[in-house]
Design goal:
Rossmann fold; five-stranded parallel sheet; two-stranded antiparallel sheet; globular
């Protein structure tokens, strides 16, 4: 289950360029009125939303009462792996409840890592080349 009531979201690889998928995916969350933060190491904000340089910095800013986040990943597999590795090193893995790897953002190494090392349930990891821009609407409707 990727979506859940009360869950917050992050777009890893959010772009300031409106033509890139990292920006389109961020706007999808905004248009669906979901609480989302862009993760972009070189932007202070994306689409008017405060950006965080790393996924870990965003997790550290969450309040203790925030249960978990869902992460949409748009970065290349090696960048994705390094971001999740940092989350584990900083002992923040328990804050990640679900991950949606967008097409081109994953390989078997990073998928295995988030399931085995971060402890994200296999049922909460989407890594089948399904794009949120195509299937997000129906998944959101089915899960919330």
């Amino acid at each position: 289950m990727f979506f859940a009531p009360g869950r917050k979201y992050a777009v890893l690889g959010a772009s300031t360029n409106r033509g890139k998928f990292g920006n389109k995916i961020l706007r999808w969350y905004i248009n669906h009125k979901l609480p989302v933060k862009p993760i972009n190491p070189s932007a202070e904000e994306v689409e008017g939303v405060k950006a965080y340089p790393t996924l870990n910095k965003y997790i550290e800013d969450l309040s203790i009462s925030d249960e978990s986040i869902g992460v949409s990943v748009v970065t290349p597999p090696q960048v994705s792996f390094e971001m999740f590795k940092e989350v584990l090193e900083k002992r923040n893995a328990d804050k990640i409840a679900s991950i949606w790897f967008q097409p081109g953002s994953f390989d078997s190494k990073v998928v295995k890592y988030v399931i085995e090392k971060l402890g994200v349930s296999k049922d909460s990891v989407i890594s089948n080349n399904d794009c949120i821009l195509v299937s997000g609407e129906s998944k959101l409707r089915d899960e919330i």
